[in-house]
Amino acid sequence: MELYLQTLANGISLGSLYALIAIGYTMVYGILRLINFAHADLLMVAGYIAFYGIMVFALPWWFSFLIAIALTALLGVSIEKIAYRPLRNAPRISVLISAIGVSFLLENLGIVAIGARPKSFPRPEELVWNIKLGDISFLSLTVIIPIVTLLLLVAVTYMVNKTKTGTAMRAVSRDFETASLMAVDVNKVVSTTFLVGSSLAAVGGILYSLQYPQIDPLMGVFPGLKCFIAAVMGGIGSIPGAMLGGFILGMGEVFLVAFMPELSGYRDAFAFVILIFILLFKPTGILGENVVEKV
Amino acid sequence: MEGYESHIYLGEVNGGTMFKKKYVTVITLLLVAAFALAGCGGGGGEKKDAAQDAASDVIKIGVYEPLTGTNAAGGEMTVEGIKLANQLFPEVLGKKVELVIVDNKSEKQEAANAVERLVSKDKVNVIIGSYGSSLSMAGGPIAKDAGIPVIGCSPTNPAVTLGNDYYFRVCFIDPFQGTVMANYAFDKLGAKKAAIIQDVQQDYSVGLNNYFEKSFKKLAGEDAIVAKVNYNTGDKDFSSQLTAIKDKKPDVIFAPGNFTESGILVEKARELGITCPILGGDTWESEEFLNRVKNTKDVYFSTHFDSTQPVTEMSKKFKEEYEKAYAGKQVNAFGALGFDSYILALDAMKKANSADPKAIRDALAGTKDFEGATGLITLDTNGDATKTAIIKKVADGNFVYEGKVDPK
Question: Where do transmembrane segments lie in this chain (chain A) (predicted)?
């Protein structure tokens, strides 16, 4: 029972981190039909900004986190403006390659400018402490991460479904040209999407750095890949799908390792195996819509 | 419109001239390639001559170590030791010794490339490296084929020197290290049940665990290993592995691995309320690891050297000079092993009275009671050092000497 509860707590915390990051992928895909590979590296950027804010500029942690989120969001929007927008009418594959290029650029800039040696991320005492419930012991983060994720998910869902910007987003994701004919400012909508997606990536990156407090320039690569899988699994383009995919993946991984320890070396392979199975039976993902490609 | 035009253009040319054009291009490319190759060959020949000329006044020692990537800190400490030795003993056989240091990026493929570069481009007389058993195993066969002897500073997996007459090392090996820790857990810590955590991608981690498991089972019975879980290099989330182990209530956990992952792992274990002693190997002796586990108790590991317990005159000298050269840094085992590798290489050249790689190899193979900073080094038939192991623990935010174990 104790093992079960502890594992459940671990799973919820990992799953909600995945969900948070997966939403960024899914939102951008929904609007631009682009897999934004640079999304993963925004986690790293946010982690480092927060790190330098606290360690070098000696800012209070909450202020440093806010700055990290703001700057990362700004970076996300600029990446779209510089690397994706000029290619909007180019074949989709060119934009994809551009995204991979941006991702490599960020990673290698990190290696050159900061160095590849991992740095220890500071954990503010007000935010991270140990909780003991009987025999179960866990970090406060195990509770904080799902709560933050849940709040952000509610906020994003509300924005997309109930606000004017959200309506515009949905319109643009349905049909780019028609939406622009209806006087929707497409560029603004795309920028907003990147702003929201990158902010979520920043929050995800900070929470990730707090949870696994060692940051390096390549730290975004694996979580990024996993969250991309989560987004595809849930049905890429669908926000509830990304959340569901994130939770399934996080829970699945943690339970696999906890209950079949001899298979623990295969935890990363596990994510890909579920992905293949889900795509075999439901190519659009669990909550993906069956949209017929326009010819 | 532009795209359309370019299509038409391609179509027309494809009909006739394009074919010829392609032909010409291919031939031109072939010619260029041929010239380039010839150029390379010629260049190579010249370089060789140059190297031989240079060989008269310079002896080159190649160093391949991880200076970036997950093992960067280990590589850096080792290179510091090598450079220090080079400053103290810059000459041998009346010639200047030049270090050629190459980063193997903590990757096996890069390690192979680095050795290839040292033997074919830089034409070194002897090689030192590398931190990390997997990296050394990747580099070993290439040096062997080229007939250049290698002195390993800290690769402890037996397979590094096995079947390779050109690979030697100044450190003890995994069977010894794993056995020492098993004995320590059973005798000194009174452990009856042990759990094992291993990094399946690191030969070092898997090797140490195998020998620990064997020895511990012999001491405490066949069922004494209550759990064995795996992770991969680069993992950061160990909560589920540790939860599974916590459920089995072991008396001790053996978890050797890279200091990066191990640091997070040990910290996480304490967060999850696992209070039993956690044991590891020599890789744990690094600032990175210490910074993570500073506030924890009952963390033990085996290592090669302790600055508070100098065993030879050379240990004292190393300690003094290291503190002078690298003020503010902790005198550590990897620096000492790098230091020893360098002075052993020089000693072999002196004994052979030659810088010829083959002669150096033969001299190295006969090493007996060589006085290094880490103790007296005797190389056995495999090229492995038989030495004393030191056990340290984490206490009051520092690594503290706990005891030593002599080889049988």
Answer: 12-35, 42-59, 95-116, 136-160, 189-208, 228-257, 269-288
Please compute the mean of the pLDDT values over residues B160-180 and round it to a whole number.
91
* DSSP β-bridge partners for residue B250: none
Considering only CB atoms, B260 lies closest to which of A130, A132, A214, namely: A214
Residue A78 touches chain B, beta carbons under 8 Å: no
List CB contacts (< 8 A) between B69 and chain A. 116
To the question of domain A2-281 being in CATH 1.10.3470, the answer is yes
A108 touches chain B (CB under 8 A): no
Place of tokens 């920043």: A202
Rounded CA gap, A233 and A22, in Å? 10
pLDDT single digits (tens) B213-271: 999 999 999 999 999 999 988 888 898 889 889 889 999 999 999 888 999 999 999 98
Write down the pLDDT at residue B101.
94
ipTM exceeding 0.90?
Answer: no
Q: Which of A140, A214, A253 to mutate to test the interface with B (most CBs of B within 10 A)?
A: A214
CA–CA gap between residue B159 and residue B140 (Å, rounded): 10
Q: Report residue B363 as tokens.
A: 């001299």
Cis before B130 (ω within 30)? yes
Write down the pLDDT at residue B46. 40
Angle at B43 (CA atoms; ends B38, B46), nearest 5 degrees: 130
**pTM (predicted TM-score):** 0.73
Question: Can you give the residue ranges of every domain in chain A?
Answer: 2-281
Query: A6 in contact with B at a CB cutoff of 8 Å?
Result: yes
Checking if the pLDDT of B343 tops 90, the result is: yes
Three-point CA angle A11, A12, A17, nearest 5°? 100
Q: Helix/strand/coil (H, E, C) string of chain A?
A: CHHHHHHHHHHHHHHHHHHHHHHHHHHHHHHHCCCCCCHHHHHHHHHHHHHHHHHCCCCCHHHHHHHHHHHHHHHHHHHHHHHHHHHCCCCHHHHHHHHHHHHHHHHHHHHHHHCCCCEECCCCCCCCCEEEECCEEEECHHHHHHHHHHHHHHHHHHHHHHCHHHHHHHHHHHCHHHHHHCCCCHHHHHHHHHHHHHHHHHHHHHHHHHHCCEECCCCCHHHHHHHHHHHHHHCCCCHHHHHHHHHHHHHHHHHHHHHCHHHHHHHHHHHHHHHHHHHHHCCCCCCCCCCCCCC
The Cα–Cα gap between A81 and B213 comes to 57
Does A212 lie at the interface with B, CB-CB under 8 angstroms? yes
The answer to whether residues B167 and B144 touch, using CB atoms and an 8 Å cutoff, is: yes
Nearest chain A residue to B274 by CA distance is A137
